[in-house]
Every structure is written in structure tokens, then in C-alpha cells.
Specification:
Helices cover 31% and strands 20% of the residues. The chain is an alpha+beta fold and 489 residues long. It has 3 domains: 111 residues, Uridine Diphospho-n-acetylenolpyruvylglucosamine Reductase, domain 2; 123 residues, 2-Layer Sandwich (Uridine Diphospho-n-acetylenolpyruvylglucosamine Reductase, domain 3); 210 residues, Vanillyl-alcohol Oxidase, Chain A, domain 3 (3-Layer(aba) Sandwich), CATH 3.40.462. The radius of gyration is 23 Å and the shape is globular. Bound molecules: flavin-adenine dinucleotide. The site of flavin-adenine dinucleotide has 35 residues, from strand 3, helix 6 and strand 9.
Length: 489
């Protein structure tokens, strides 16, 4: 496959590159550290950090404090030209390249690599006429949602506005409008990409369509650095959304009921059932602190009276202890999942299931709910109802298997110290092993992290898609230097 650069972007970039200082191509290992860092620093406007520099520790850490990484060098680009220069520098030096925006979804540790930290590239522009948002590589969902909702529009963000738009979208992106409008990757009109050899391209359905296809669900960290994205916005303003809090002891009955109820619902509803163990922390509101619940959670993005009537089916079945479903502006969507926003050490894992037989319900309740008097090892186990537009888009997506199933299980834990970490790691692993006979075997790639992302990437792609992705990867990155995200090789 031959990759041609986009001519407009190329000429824009070439002039910037011509005026920049080129480093020689000596191997990084035999050059004094300061000369390598200063060679890169001379080429970009943004900051460059090496181990021990002020700013190095901040630039290498992100939301998940468990992800420990020691890059050889960190570039913090402020624009697309910086990214081109940093990627060309890495190619010249034979460096592996890792990318981080917020650190919500770390891949394999970037030890010894060039880490491109995009967190300074936060431009967001909303075009209410075209119903699109143009978003920089480091922007989070918060400003996109705020700007879009001022025009009665919404993006396909996930459970929190704190996650990065580009990383979330490259891995799929399943949020509270998912069953109605699809994954965030379905909403992409174009990506601005810098390929592993430092070539700037604009890719879309009509320009480099193969690369466009690969990026929409298989692209996180694997075939270059995305510097910006244009995404569709949807006419969603007021929704009916929230949580019903039932006692933890009702979990078996509720999981059984949800397994039958959810598949009968309209695509206007994206919902989940969640076994939640709220930690005993001051940040958790008093009525929830240190307590376990079974939640019926979701968002109805259709006729509001129909939405209320749909959730009334649960209220009529059994009155919840706390009822937080109500009409709300979609701009307040963070209130649905109530995700934490402060960085924390966390572990996450996932499986897809097509049904919820009693065996699965038994495994989840016995392993996730704490025994009396003991601390829970799993913070929550949430089963999101998939299908609808989440599944409709699978045929055109690289991650066809990884977005196709009826219930998407996500289990997450907070790891207060390394000793508890071993117990948590084993609790999550043993729960997955017990569930093995009942799962589809495909991973939803946004819910796997670290080495697990490398190990489980292939399960998300059907055989044909895996071969197509491998060919795209081989053409763009034959040396596999972009090896810290989703694995395509
Ligand atoms: C609290 C929380 C809630 C979440 N909720 C949801 C949810 O509802 N739905 C859902 O689908 N996911 C959800 N996620 C998962 C999240 O979408 C993924 O972790 C995603 O990868 C985060 O992207 P990021 O850019 O914020 O994180 P980062 O860790 O900075 O990036 C994640 C990965 O994306 C790649 N990447 C990032 N930027 C670029 C770029 N510019 N070019 C190429 N590759 C890049 C890198 O390989 C990187 O390892 C959640 C995660 C957390 C922690």
C-alpha cells in the first residue's frame, strides 16, 4: 500500500519543518542525553522533558496512577507541526512512540520510548450549522459537551466528560447515547493523522479510506498520532436519565429481571445494571458512603413521557431506596455515572455476554458483593445493555467483534496499596475465569488497559478485519514502533 500525503496539509507542514532544526541520525544510545533532548527541543515549540527534569513526572503520569512509565523523552506538542517534528525525530532515532492525552486508558508502559503527551492541544470549535465539532488531540469531552449543548446539540461522549475525545473515539466510545446513535467512532467525519514516518494526512471516507476505517476502533496508539478529529453532533438536549438505587440484597432478582427487560427496550434507551460498592470516602455523599447498592442506570433520548413510563416499570415492580431518574439537560450527563474525576490507582477489565443465565448472576453477586464485615475488592461491576446502534455499526468497523454483544460487563477497582493490588488483580482474574463459559470472548478495547490491551486486542477483530488491519499496520509502521496501544501487528 502506498500512502500519499494530503497536499494541503503537507505544504502547510513542510514550510514549518523546513525552518526547523534537523537533528543528525546518530543512535540515541551513544549520544549524551542533553544533546538528544536539546535536539528535539530545538525542533518543537512545546516542552521537552527527560528523566529527572522538572515537569518529567507530571508529564508521564495521568488519570490512572497505577500506570507507571519511564519514557526516554517526553514531548508536549502545542500544535500539529510539533507532532510532525516529534514523530520524525523518533523515526530518525529509531525510538518507539507512545501517546497520552489524559492517561484514562494507558496501554503498555512507555518505558524507554518517546512519549507524546498531547494534553496542551485542547482546541475545540463547534459548527452548529454543519453539526460538527473540531477537536484537538488533548481535549476532553467537557468543553465539547458545553459548546455543543449551547446549540441544542450533543456529542457521543461516554460516562464522564473527563475522558479525552480522541483516545476514547479511537477505541470505539460507548456512551449514554450509544444504542440510539452508535459509538463515537461512528460519528467521525475526518481525522488529522501524523503517520509513523512523520507524514501529515487528513483521512476520511474519501481520502485514505483504509486508514480511516482502521482508526475508527483500531487506531489508539497503533498507526500514528491523531492531532485532531471532526465529529458529528446530534440534536439531543433534554433527556430522561439517572439511577434507581435498590438494596444490594436485591441484586440476583434485579440482574435476572434486567436480563429479560433490557433487550425489549427501544433504542432510545441506553441502560445498565450496576453492582456498586461505594467506598467509605468523604468524597462520596453521606447516604451512599461505604454502602453497596444495585443500580438501574441509564439515559432515555426520546419522548420524555415514554422514558418516564419505561422506568415506571421498575418503580411499579419495586420502589427503589433512592430514585434519581428525572428530566435533565444532557449537558449534565456526568450525573448519570457519577465517575470520579481525581486521578487514582485503578484496575479495569471487561467481557461481552449475550445472555445473563443464573450461573453468571451467581458468579457476579458472590464475587463482587462483599461478604459481611469485609472490604469489597471490586468497586463496581456494570452490565451495559448493547445492541441497537452499537451493534448496527459493527459491520463497517474494524472492532466488529469488540462492539457486538448484548451485555458489556465492566469491572473496576481502586487499588489503595500494592498488597491489596495483588488481591484485587486476582479477584478480577478469577471472576473472568469463572465467567469464561458464558462470554463471547471479544474485548471492548476501551475497557482494557496496560499489558491486557496488548494481549486482548486481537479478540476484538474478526479474522478478515485482523488481516486487513495487519496490512495497514505493516504499510504504515513496518518496524512496529507504535506498539504501546492497541495491537494490530
Ligand atoms: C472514569 C472512566 C470512565 C470511562 N468511561 C467510558 C465510557 O463510558 N465509554 C467508553 O467507551 N470508554 C470509557 N472509558 C475508557 C476510555 O474511553 C479509554 O480509557 C480511552 O482510551 C481514554 O482515552 P484518553 O485519551 O482519555 O486516555 P489516554 O490514556 O491518554 O489515551 C488512551 C490511549 O489512546 C491512545 N491515544 C490517545 N491519544 C491519541 C492520539 N492523539 N493519537 C493516537 N492514539 C492516541 C493511546 O494509545 C493511549 O494509550 C472510561 C475510562 C475511565 C477511566
Amino acid at each position: 500500500m502506498t500512502i500519499q500525503s494530503d497536499t494541503t496539509v503537507q505544504s502547510e507542514t513542510t514550510s514549518a519543518i523546513d525552518s526547523a532544526t534537523r537533528s543528525d541520525a546518530d543512535a540515541i544510545a551513544v549520544r549524551p542525553r542533553t544533546s538528544v533532548l536539546s535536539a528535539l527541543a530545538a525542533r518543537i515549540t512545546g516542552e521537552v522533558h527527560g528523566p529527572g527534569d522538572p515537569g518529567y513526572d507530571e508529564a508521564r503520569s495521568g488519570f490512572n496512577l497505577l500506570a507507571e512509565q519511564r519514557p526516554a523523552v517526553i514531548a508536549v506538542p502545542v500544535n500539529r507541526f510539533d507532532v510532525v517534528e516529534a514523530v520524525r525525530f523518533a523515526a530518525d532515532e529509531g525510538l518507539r512512540v507512545a501517546i497520552q492525552a489524559t492517561g484514562h486508558g494507558p496501554g503498555a508502559a512507555a518505558d524507554g520510548a518517546l512519549l507524546i503527551n498531547t494534553s496542551a492541544m485542547t482546541d475545540v470549535t463547534v459548527d452548529p450549522i454543519a453539526r460538527t465539532a473540531t477537536v484537538g488531540a488533548g481535549a476532553k469531552w467537557g468543553p465539547v459537551l458545553a459548546q455543543a449543548s449551547a446549540h441544542g446539540l450533543a456529542p457521543l461522549l461516554g460516562s464522564t466528560t473527563d475522558v479525552g475525545v480522541v483516545g476514547y473515539t479511537l477505541g470505539g466510545g460507548f456512551g449514554w447515547l450509544g444504542r440510539k446513535h452508535g459509538l463515537s467512532s461512528d460519528a467521525v467525519r475526518s481525522f488529522d493523522l501524523v503517520t509513523p514516518d512523520g507524514n501529515p494526512l487528513r483521512v476520511s471516507a474519501t481520502s485514505h479510506p483504509d486508514i480511516f476505517w482502521a482508526l475508527r476502533g483500531g487506531g489508539a496508539g497503533s498507526i500514528g498520532v491523531v492531532t485532531g478529529v471532526v465529529i458529528d453532533l446530534y440534536p439531543v438536549s433534554t433527556v430522561y436519565a439517572g439511577n434507581l438505587f435498590y438494596p444490594a440484597d436485591d441484586a440476583t432478582e434485579i440482574l435476572r429481571r434486567f436480563g429479560e427487560w433490557a433487550p425489549q427496550q427501544s433504542e432510545d434507551l441506553t441502560s445498565s445494571v450496576c453492582l456498586m460498592n461505594f467506598p467509605p470516602l468523604d468524597a462520596v455523599p453521606e447516604p451512599l458512603r461505604g454502602r453497596s447498592f444495585t443500580l438501574i442506570r441509564g439515559c432515555w433520548a426520546g419522548d420524555l413521557d415514554e422514558g418516564r413510563a419505561t422506568i415506571d416499570q421498575w418503580r411499579e415492580w419495586k420502589a427503589p431506596e433512592i430514585d434519581m431518574w428525572s428530566e435533565m439537560p444532557f449537558a449534565a450527563a456526568d450525573a448519570i455515572s457519577m465517575d470520579p474525576t481525581d486521578p487514582m490507582p485503578a484496575m479495569v477489565t471487561t467481557e461481552w455476554l449475550d445472555t445473563l443465565p443464573d450461573e453468571v448472576i451467581d458468579i457476579l453477586t458472590t464475587r463482587v458483593q462483599p461478604k459481611p464485615g469485609s472490604m469489597p475488592l471490586v468497586l463496581f461491576a456494570e452490565l451495559r445493555h448493547g445492541g441497537g446502534a452499537v451493534a448496527h455499526g459493527a459491520a463497517d468497523s474494524p472492532n466488529d467483534l469488540g462492539r457486538n454483544g448484548t451485555f458489556l460487563l465492566e469491572m473496576a477497582s481502586v487499588v489503595p496499596d500494592p498488597h491489596v493490588g495483588l488481591a484485587i488483580e486476582s479477584a478480577l482474574r478469577l471472576t473472568r475465569e469463572a465467567l469464561a463459559p458464558y462470554v463471547t470472548g471479544a474485548a471492548y478495547l476501551n475497557f482494557v488497559e496496560g499489558e491486557d490491551k496488548t494481549a486482548r486486542s486481537a479478540s476484538s477483530f474478526s479474522d478478515g478485519n485482523r488481516r486487513r488491519l495487519a496490512a495497514i499496520k505493516a504499510a504504515l509502521d513496518p518496524g512496529n514502533r507504535f506498539c504501546h496501544g492497541i495491537t494490530l501487528a
